[in-house]
User: Fold this.
Amino acid sequence: MKLNQSEREVIDLIHNSNGISRKALSEATGLSQASITNVTKSLVQQNYILEGERVGNGLGRKEVQLYPNPMRFKFLGIDIGGFRLRLAIANNNLEILYEREHLIKEINEEEDIMEGLVRRIDNFLKDVNVPVEDLDAIGVGVTGIVDNEQRRIVNIPNLDRWNDLPISEVFGERYKATVYLDESGRTMALAEKLRGKASTYQNFAVVHLAFGIVAGIMVNGQPVRGMNNVGGLLGHIMADESAGQCLCGNYGCLELIATYPMFEENYEKLGGKESSIVEAYQLNDKTALNVCMTAGNAIGVALSSVVNLFNPEALLLGGPVFEKFPLVFDEMKRTLLMRANRFATVGMKFEKSSFGDREGLMGALAMANTQFISKHFNS
Ligand SMILES: [Zn+2]
Assistant:
């Protein structure tokens, strides 16, 4: 279905809102109420959108809210993290219908990584009873570097066997759906912009601290990508040269200090006595608190550079590191406010990211949804 520019604007607005009235659409697009009535009538007839309840706004008349038809399209989201592979099927409203996860470790034991991925996806689709024909698009987010055409995984710094994987080609052929691939920091930023807390921000960064460090930076509403799709690789900027060699080949990367497994490792290295740093942290163990202070400081220093370079309106922060060790957050914030330019941080917000553990999965789904909708209504 081919729509003109303003009709496309209408469908995008409906897709990226939680209910919007014809009047609000007219105000947002500058189209007359009569044109909006025509466009939305045709979209309702074709089952792309649904009419919902009437919502009043003060004294004015109550307006019917329009929604995307949740049943109209189905998406498969694939989040390839450093620790977990997550799979989900979502409807057109990005509500997750089915979900599954596997450990990356388990896939690493496979002779052929692509084959291992495909088999797990096949089994998932079979078990949840979603035939391949029902999939409209697939979104894949990966904590690594993708090629310029966004079709292949070029490299995952922490996983040495995940080089040069033809994701889009293999998944596209097997599942007969368009495949969208990107680095997961950028997909997370997209999910925050379209469905999360960043809907009103043009400049913000998402930082997810888990098995690895994932960051997505939006500038003027566009994700920072750079020439070779490496823009935003926060985990591998140099934090402390004496921290040793990183799996990426470089020395002193932030990931040697501030990822979840490194907390455990650094705790043991410093002679921690408890069985885990999480346990030690809860007992106010000095070694555990020191590890957290060092990491929080390193993240704060790194993020102060991000703040000085991009001057974001907000930092959206999440992942198990912040959840398990609140001290890391406090120390990160304190360091950042001290180190970043003081004019850059005036009014800047520190917020928890929107989707918790599912940040990467929502990123993959949001990318599939928005790109698919845009393509579908343009051809
Ligand atoms: Zn590195």
About this structure: The chain has 14 helices and 15 strands. The radius of gyration is 22 Å. The CA atoms of residues 129 and 356 lie 27 Å apart.
